[in-house]
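INFO batch 0412 | record 1 of 1 | parsing
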Amino acid sequence: MKASVGTRDCSGISFIPTSNSNKDSTLFLPRTSVLRLHQSPTKNSDKTLIFTAKRASPPRTVVSASSSDGTAVEREPPAKQLRRILDSPGIHQGPACFDALSAKLVESAGFDFCFTTGFGISASRLGLPDTGLTSYGEMVDQGRHISQAVSIPMIGDGDNGYGNAMNVKRTVKGYIRAGFAGIILEDQVSPKACGHTQGRKVVSRDEAVMKMKAAVDARKESGSDIVIVARTDSRQAVSLEESIWRSRALADAGADVLFIDALASKEEMKTFCEVYPLIPKMANMLEGGGKTPILNPIELEDLGYKLVAYPLSLMGVSIRAMQDALTAIKGGRIPPPGSMPSFEEIKEILGFNTYYEEEKRYASRIPLQRGGYNLAILIYCNAVVSAKHNLRALYFGLSIFGYLPASSSFGIQQGDEEDTELRDQSPQEPVVEVITPDVYNSYGADGSRGPFSGIWSRTLRVKITGRDGFERLDVRIPAGFLEGITNIVPALVGVNIKALMDDAALEVGGKQLLDFNDTGGDRIQVFLE
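INFO prediction complete | emitting tokens
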């Protein structure tokens, strides 16, 4: 039997066995690829199996977590988590994060929820001021990474919705898909200005209300319960009275939480909290010198606040710590031990140990066998020869062993098309042919017989055992396919396996050719069978 593979890109190919039965086996290949398996000419059959692309179903969003034994358990949806927090007694503090790492630190510190800040994301992602330069796409992309890194609910900064009412609907739906539990929407014009800074202007009352109604409609259309925080910047742009009027109107339009930015005194904050007392209020404690007085959580709760944000703490201390570290490095020193966590602590924060424990559950590999040989190895070895060791062939081989991700799944159907038809349809696609070595059992490549000519009937077994005791690789390769074996096992570079095989060619039965540990501590064994 021989196989031919036509593909534009071999970088995403891998073979995954699903059953011991050939008809139940599944090959995962790129969507543009076609794999044909032809009966050997010696069997007088022209039957052709064509593996054609089958589009995978879109991924479902599943909110889950892992229990102590590693099994998946269902987790409460983010919006429901946040609403439960809003319904619980007391005031709730939420530091503002700006990337996945800062969010993980917030969660590990024991906070129940977290904010994202446009100020911090603009600074960390773009190195630019929060003046409307960050786009919707950049904000939702950053939010997606953040929400995937933690299990606590996140309230995202949605700025002014990035346009008109229709843009607001798209923004709300995008934040829902990104995993946010809540979204803050403000009434500034575009381009917006940063809170507590000069130059802020707001849209008309009517436009502000209609944009809030659009946000509520987007929530309903999505079947979500995302918490909508209505922010008005009209205190600084117009007056306290205007901000109070807008807060009432936005609540009537469907907002869940109210927020007036840059209130100038404790008295103004109290007046605000008296508006619709049963609707939660949010305070913004701008560290370092904003217009709103800094109050402790008990004082804020006494005024009537339910949520309090700290927008600059993490960003501010990070900037100062990095400046101090850079000053030390420039002076020929490294930061003192007390100023930074140890490497082990950093690894623990990032989840290295958790990763290693989970990795052990998937350490073993099951080779796909066809006719006594590993089909994946056959295709890879001949691909290296046919493609003259180019990079595509290397990617092809790496993907077979699981070092590159698999792509689309493929189903099997019968067909009678000839190879020429496939090549005519895709003339630009390289074809890699694999010929099994059965016909070469007795003769050398030049037709002569010799001590090494029978090597095609022998098999090389390559076994790698990791230093952790887990089996990394255990494959059998036709002994005639020496080309490319070092791409499978780089540690064999420089080893003259051909000479070792020559010495053992006439021996009956198996023989161990190599047994050593590589520089990484893995044990590598090669047998001639």
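INFO post-check: The mean pLDDT is 76.
INFO record closed
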